[in-house]
Design a protein that fits this description.
The structure holds two protein chains of two kinds. Chain A is mainly α. In chain A, about 80% of the residues lie in helices and about 0% in strands. Chain B is built from twelve helices and two strands, in the order H-H-H-H-E-H-E-H-H-H-H-H-H-H. Chain B has a two-stranded antiparallel ribbon with strand order 1-2. Chain B starts with a helix and ends in a 19-residue tail after the last helix. Classes of the chains: A mainly alpha, B mainly alpha. At the A-B interface, helix 5, helix 6, helix 12, helix 15 and helix 16 of A face helix 4, helix 10 and helix 12 of B. Chain A: InterPro entries: ABC_transp_permease (IPR001851). Chain A: GO terms for molecular function: transmembrane transporter activity.
C-alpha cells in the first residue's frame, strides 16, 4: 500500500473506530446507538437551519485547529488556545461595543484587536520557553484558567457589574441578513469566509515564505537552525504569537458573529481543546485542518440534538472525539496492521 | 485577627487543599520516573472524583461512616482503569504521550459528566451526606502553638497523603523495584539489557499514578467539594503535575511543592476573611494559584533534571 494511502486511511480508520466504540458505550449505557447516531445526523443536516448552525460551529474550530496546528508545525504544543481564544473574544467584544466607526474600519479593527489579544496571551509562554526553557504545556494550561478569571473580571468592569457586555455595534458585526435568511434564521455569519482566508494564509506563510521556512526549521531541529544562523529564540516567540493570533481570531468569530457579545464563563469553552483534535486529524496541514474542523464542528453541533431527540447526554460526542485522538496518536498500530494486510494481498497476487 | 490567629486559620486550610495535590503529584513522580509523561492526571482526578461521589451518594445509607473510605477504593479502581488506556497507547502503541494524555483528560471529563447526566438527569450531583471528618490528634494537639497549627481538626486524608509521600520516597530510592523504575526512565536500553522488563515497569508505574490520581480526586471531591460537576476539578491535576516538576521529580520535593500550591489555593478560597488579604480584589486571589505555578516553573526551578527517557517510547533494538 502506498504511503499516501496509509496516511489517508489512518485518520479514516480512527474516525470509524471512534464512532464504533461510541456506539458500544451508548449500548452499554442502555441507549439505542442507532437512535443516537440518527439524532446526531439530524442535528447536522436536518434542514437549512441546522446546516447553517453547523457551518457556524465549524468557523471557530477552523481557527482553533489552525492555532494548534501552527504551533505543532513549529515544534510547540499550544494547549493554551482556549485561553487565547477567550482573550480574543473579550477584546473583539469590547472594541465592537466601545467605539462607533464606519464598518470598513470598525470590523477590521475588532478582528485585529482579537488577534492582538490572543497573540499577547500566547507571548507569555513563548517568551518563557525561549528565554527560560520553561515547558510551554503547563504554562499554557495555567494561562487558560487565568484567562477565564481575568475575562470574567473585565466583563464585570466593562458592563458596569453585569453578567455580559453590550451587543457589538452593527458596524463591527459579522452577522449577515442574507446568510440568515438563506438558512432559516440561523446564526450563520460571514466569519466562515474569514476562516477560509486564514487557512490559505497559513498555507502561504508556511510553504511560500522565508519566515515560514525558518519557523518550521526551528521546530524540526533547534541546533541545526541555530548553526544555520537563524535566531531560535525569536522564532519560538514568533511561532507562539502567530498561533495565539489565530486563536484570538477564533474568539472574534464568537464575539462578532455568533453571540455579538461575551458573557461570564463558568468553565472553558472547549473550542480550544477540540482544536487539538482538529489539528491532529488534519495532520497539521492547513487544508487538513479545514477537513478536521468540518468533521468535529459538525459532530459538536449535531451532538446538541442528541439529548432532545434520543435522550442521550451530548458528552457522548466528546467521548468519541477523545477516542479518535487516541487512535490517531496510536497510528503506529494501524499502520502496522495496514502494512501486514497490504503484504498479504501482494503475496496472493 | 492577630498574626498567630491567621496562621491557625491558613495553615490547616493549606494542608487541607494540598492533600489531593500531594497524592496526585506522587502518582506523577512514579510515571515520569519510569519514562512516561502523564498529562492525563487531571482526567484521572476527574474520574476519581466522580466515581467516589456517585458511590458515596448510592451507598451512604448502607455503609455510614465508612462510605468515603470505600469511595477512595472505588476511585482508585476507576483511576487505574482509565490510566490503563494511557499505558496501552503510550507504552504498547508508541503514541505521543502528551497528545494521548490530553485525550485522556477529554475522555475523563466527558465520561464523568456523561455518567452523571445519565444517572441523575442533570450536570451536577447533590451534595454527599457522608464526608471525611476531622479529629484532633491526641497528645500532639496539646503542644503550644504548633499543636494548634498542625494537629487540631486534622483530616485523616491529609495524614494519608503525607504517609504516601514517605512510602513513595522509600519505594523509589530504597527498594530494588525503585531502582528498576528509575533505570527504565533514565536509560531503558541499559535496563533492558540487564533483564528489566521495560514495558512491564512502565505499565506498573502508569497504573500507580492512576491509583493515586483517582484517590487524589476522591479526596478532593469528598473532603473539599462535596459534590461533583464538570467544574469540580479545575486544574488540580495540572497543578499536581507542576508540583512534581517543581519538586524535581522527587517524592518529598513534590510533597513540599504541593503544600505550596495548596497554600495558594487556600488563600484564594479563604482569603476573604483574612485582614489585609481581604482588601485585595478577588480576581487576584482567584488567579493566584495559577500565576504562582507559572512563576514557580519560571523562576525557582533552575535547570530541570527530568528523567532522561521521559516522554520517549522505548522501541526494542532501536539505537
Amino acid at each position: 500500500m502506498s504511503k499516501r494511502a496509509v496516511n489517508i486511511l489512518v485518520p479514516l480508520i480512527s474516525i470509524i473506530l471512534g464512532l464504533v466504540i461510541g456506539a458500544i458505550v451508548m449500548a452499554v449505557s442502555g441507549f439505542n446507538p442507532i437512535d443516537g447516531y440518527v439524532a446526531l445526523w439530524n442535528g447536522i443536516f436536518m434542514d437549512s437551519y441546522t446546516m447553517g448552525e453547523t457551518i457556524r460551529q465549524i468557523t471557530p474550530y477552523i481557527f482553533s485547529g489552525l492555532a494548534v496546528a501552527f504551533a505543532f508545525r513549529t515544534g510547540l504544543f499550544n494547549i493554551g488556545v482556549e485561553g487565547q481564544l477567550i482573550m480574543g473574544w473579550l477584546a473583539a467584544a469590547w472594541v465592537g461595543q466601545a467605539f462607533e466607526l464606519p464598518k470598513i474600519i470598525h470590523l477590521p479593527l475588532a478582528l485585529l484587536a482579537a488577534a492582538a489579544a490572543g497573540a499577547l496571551w500566547a507571548f507569555i509562554p513563548g517568551f518563557l520557553k525561549a528565554k527560560l526553557q520553561v515547558h510551554e504545556v503547563i504554562v499554557t494550561i495555567m494561562l487558560n484558567y487565568t484567562a477565564i478569571h481575568v475575562a470574567n473580571a473585565l466583563i464585570g468592569v466593562i458592563s458596569g457589574g453585569g453578567e455580559r457586555t453590550d451587543k457589538v455595534h452593527e458596524s463591527a458585526s459579522l452577522r449577515a441578513h442574507y446568510l440568515e435568511a438563506m438558512t432559516d434564521y440561523s446564526r450563520l455569519h460571514w466569519g466562515i469566509l474569514v476562516a477560509l482566508l486564514a487557512v490559505v494564509f497559513m498555507w502561504f506563510l508556511l510553504e511560500r515564505t522565508t519566515l515560514g521556512y525558518e519557523l518550521k526549521a526551528v521546530g524540526f531541529n533547534k541546533n541545526a537552525s541555530e548553526y544555520a544562523g537563524m535566531n531560535v529564540k525569536k522564532n519560538i516567540i514568533l511561532a507562539m504569537v502567530i498561533s495565539g493570533a489565530f486563536a484570538g481570531l477564533g474568539g472574534a468569530m464568537e464575539a462578532l458573529g455568533t453571540f455579538e457579545n461575551i458573557s461570564k464563563l463558568h468553565a472553558a469553552t472547549g473550542i480550544g481543546f477540540d482544536g487539538i483534535a482538529v489539528a491532529l486529524l488534519g495532520a497539521n496541514q492547513p487544508f487538513g485542518v479545514l477537513l478536521g474542523a468540518i468533521l468535529f464542528g459538525a459532530l459538536k453541533n449535531g451532538g446538541l440534538n442528541m439529548p432532545s431527540e434520543a435522550g442521550i447526554p451530548t458528552e457522548i460526542v466528546s467521548i468519541v472525539i477523545a477516542l479518535i485522538i487516541f487512535f490517531i496518536a496510536s497510528g503506529y498500530i494501524i499502520r502496522v496492521a495496514l502494512e501486514r494486510f497490504g503484504k498479504k494481498r501482494k503475496e496472493e497476487k | 485577627m492577630s498574626f498567630l490567629e491567621v496562621l491557625y486559620f491558613i495553615i490547616p486550610s493549606a494542608i487541607f487543599y494540598a492533600a489531593p495535590l500531594i497524592l496526585t503529584a506522587i502518582g506523577g513522580v512514579f510515571t515520569e520516573r519510569s519514562g512516561v509523561v502523564n498529562i492525563g492526571l487531571e482526567g484521572i482526578m476527574i474520574v476519581g472524583a466522580a466515581s467516589s461521589i456517585i458511590f458515596n451518594l448510592t451507598f451512604a445509607d448502607q455503609l455510614g461512616n465508612a462510605t468515603p473510605w470505600v469511595g477512595l477504593l472505588v476511585a482508585m479502581i476507576f483511576g487505574i482503569l482509565l490510566s490503563l488506556i494511557l499505558a496501552v497507547a503510550a507504552v504498547s502503541l508508541r503514541a505521543d504521550q502528551t497528545v494521548s494524555g490530553v485525550a485522556l483528560n477529554m475522555l475523563g471529563l466527558a465520561a464523568a459528566v456523561f455518567t452523571v447526566k445519565m444517572i441523575y438527569d442533570k450536570g451536577q450531583t447533590d451534595a454527599i451526606s457522608e464526608r471525611f471528618s476531622r479529629f484532633d490528634i491526641p497528645l500532639l494537639s496539646d503542644i503550644p502553638i504548633l499543636g494548634k497549627m498542625f494537629f487540631v481538626d486534622v483530616y485523616a486524608t491529609s495524614i494519608l497523603a503525607f504517609a504516601v509521600a514517605f512510602i513513595a520516597w522509600y519505594v523509589i530510592y530504597k527498594t530494588p523495584f525503585g531502582l528498576r523504575l528509575r533505570s527504565v526512565g533514565e536509560h531503558p536500553m541499559a535496563a533492558d539489557t540487564m533483564g528489566v522488563n521495560v514495558s512491564k515497569m512502565r505499565y506498573v508505574a502508569v497504573m500507580i499514578s492512576g491509583a493515586l490520581g483517582g484517590i487524589g480526586g476522591a479526596v478532593y471531591a469528598q473532603a473539599i467539594a462535596g459534590n461533583f460537576g464538570a467544574a469540580t476539578i479545575s486544574g488540580q491535576g495540572f497543578m499536581a503535575l507542576a508540583a512534581m516538576i517543581f519538586g524535581k521529580w522527587h517524592p518529598l520535593g513534590a510533597m513540599g511543592a504541593a503544600l505550596f500550591f495548596g497554600f495558594a489555593q487556600a488563600l484564594s478560597v479563604v482569603g476573604g476573611s483574612i485582614p489585609y488579604v481581604q482588601d485585595v480584589p478577588t480576581i487576584f486571589l482567584l488567579i493566584l494559584p495559577y500565576v504562582l505555578t507559572i512563576l514557580a516553573l519560571a523562576g525557582f526551578i533552575g535547570k530541570a533534571n527530568a528523567p532522561k527517557a521521559s516522554g520517549v517510547p522505548y522501541i526494542k533494538g532501536k539505537r
